[in-house]
């Protein structure tokens, strides 16, 4: 008998082939399809796991980052043995353990305006599993230029969202929904805002599901935005989207306005580089404003000082310095006069996680001090991260 699939594939994929509307034709469509996943992190890992298990013909993995310990809480294809390895390579190893015959393109270079078209053109569907605005706009513009659907996911804290861009005759692109990017200072990362690992799993799995539906013809083609909240009731809600905007500079009637993708500075378009808060917190400043962690340690060992931790309550509960007082930054900024030491001999030092919010708190209190005041108000350079690095290696870093 001349079987259209290898004999072992009937057993491997039989549970989905017996589904009404899927069948052998659906499996053959998956086998002949190719997808590329940009970002092998919290979203990319679950998406890749299910795409690799479904029988996709070729999978591309694009990620230039390396596996870190903090990734393992949610990036389920990586493990302790692949720490320090490229995420694309680590994900490839994991997928080959699932199916050794998978055809995988492992791409460890960063996606740029100069290489996006060439890297993404060989694939039928593009998955955006990234976490920064410049790459999202780049992927959307590239998907429009190549005429390919873009399955985009996002997750932060307890929430996530899913949308398919540039899909069908009238599906909008990312620029249609978000013509202006947010300011870099307002775009938090998982490191700053936190993320529940299972949330990325839900969104990543949904990205894989939508991709499979597109390839097999099971998708209804209607543009919508799916919003997920782990703490919401119900947790899912779907928002119907309008068709693409005729005025969109990427996919509208005047799409020539956007110019060549390779000539666009997406970082500049999004307001510049995302701030490196750790580096900013390490800026020394003047000695009358800031104090290093080591000098601060020597000071509190010999003197009684007022130490105020301005982190959120949850973070203060994770770890804090002995004898420190917790006062959230918002409270200090709202009424800095309330936190001016009553005695000129009282020295106040503000601390936070990285040394940024503590500067804001110190500046707020100093702004309401009387002229020529002898009250000392400073903050700790680099915050508690510097304390763990330079003073106490047993202090938790999160």
UniProtKB/TrEMBL annotation:
Q: What is its main location?
A: cytoplasm
Domain named Rhodanese: residues: 301-396
- Alphabetized UniProt keyword annotations: ATP-binding, Cytoplasm, Metal-binding, Multifunctional enzyme, Nucleotide-binding, Nucleotidyltransferase, Transferase, tRNA processing, Ubl conjugation pathway, Zinc
- Give the transmembrane ranges: none
Single GO term (MF): adenylyltransferase activity
InterPro entries recorded: MOCS3/Uba4, Rhodanese-like_dom, Rhodanese-like_dom_sf, ThiF/MoeB/HesA, ThiF_NAD_FAD-bd, Ubiquitin-activating_enz
Any note on cofactor binding?
A: Binds 1 zinc ion per subunit.
Subcellular locations according to the entry: Cytoplasm, Cytosol
Q: In which pathway does it act?
A: tRNA modification; 5-methoxycarbonylmethyl-2-thiouridine-tRNA biosynthesis
Give any single GO term for biological process: protein urmylation
Q: Which GO terms describe its cellular component?
A: cytosol
Q: Which Pfam families does this UniProt record tie to the protein?
A: Rhodanese (PF00581), ThiF (PF00899)
Keyword ATP-binding listed? The answer is yes
Q: Where does Zn(2+) bind?
A: 173, 176, 248, 251
Q: Which domain of life is it from?
A: Eukaryota
Provide the binding site for ATP: 42, 63, 70-74, 87, 131-132
Name what cofactor the protein needs.
Answer: Zn(2+)
Q: Active-site residues?
A: 190 (glycyl thioester intermediate), 352 (cysteine persulfide intermediate)
Q: Which HAMAP family match?
A: MOCS3_Uba4
Concerning its family, UniProt says: In the N-terminal section; belongs to the HesA/MoeB/ThiF family. UBA4 subfamily.
Q: Supply the name of the protein.
A: Rhodanese domain-containing protein
Query: Species lineage, top-down?
Result: Eukaryota, Fungi, Dikarya, Basidiomycota, Agaricomycotina
Instruction: Name the gene for this chain.
Output: UBA4
């Amino acid at each position: 008998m001349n079987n259209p699939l290898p004999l072992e594939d009937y057993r491997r994929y039989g549970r989905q082939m017996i589904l009404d509307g899927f069948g052998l034709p659906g499996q053959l469509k998956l086998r002949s399809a190719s997808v590329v996943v940009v970002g092998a992190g919290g979203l990319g890992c679950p998406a890749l796991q299910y795409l690799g298990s479904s029988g996709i013909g070729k999978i591309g993995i694009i990620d230039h980052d390396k596996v870190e310990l903090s990734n393992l809480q949610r990036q389920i294809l990586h493990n302790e043995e692949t720490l320090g390895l490229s995420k694309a390579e680590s994900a490839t190893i994991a997928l080959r353990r699932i199916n050794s015959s998978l055809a995988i393109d492992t791409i460890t270079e960063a996606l740029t305006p100069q290489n996006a078209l060439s890297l993404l053109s060989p694939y039928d569907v593009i998955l955006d599993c990234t976490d920064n605005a410049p790459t999202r706009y780049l992927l959307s513009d590239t998907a429009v230029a190549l005429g390919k659907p873009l399955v985009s996911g996002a997750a932060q804290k307890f929430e996530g969202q899913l949308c398919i861009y540039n899909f069908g005759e009238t599906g909008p692109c990312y620029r249609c929904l978000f013509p202006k990017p947010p300011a870099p200072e307002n775009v938090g990362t998982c490191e700053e805002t936190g993320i529940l690992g299972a949330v990325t799993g839900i969104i990543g799995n949904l990205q894989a599901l939508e991709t499979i539906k597109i390839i097999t013809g099971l998708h209804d083609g209607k543009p919508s935005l799916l919003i997920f909240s782990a703490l919401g009731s119900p947790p899912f809600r779907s928002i119907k989207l309008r068709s693409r905007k005729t005025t969109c500079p990427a996919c509208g009637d005047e799409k020539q306005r956007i110019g060549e993708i390779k000539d666009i500075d997406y970082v500049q378009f999004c307001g510049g580089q995302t701030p490196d808060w750790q580096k900013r917190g390490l800026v020394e400043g003047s000695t009358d404003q800031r104090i290093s962690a080591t000098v601060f340690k020597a000071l509190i060992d010999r003197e009684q000082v007022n130490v105020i931790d301005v982190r959120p309550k949850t973070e203060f509960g994770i770890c804090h310095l002995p004898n420190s007082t917790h006062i959230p930054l918002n409270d200090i900024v709202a009424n800095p006069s309330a936190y001016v030491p009553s005695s000129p001999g009282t020295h106040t030092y503000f601390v936070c996680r990285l040394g940024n919010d503590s500067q804001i708190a110190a500046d707020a209190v100093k702004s309401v001090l009387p002229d020529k005041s002898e009250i000392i108000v400073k903050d700790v350079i680099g915050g508690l991260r510097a304390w763990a690095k330079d003073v106490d290696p047993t202090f938790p870093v999160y």
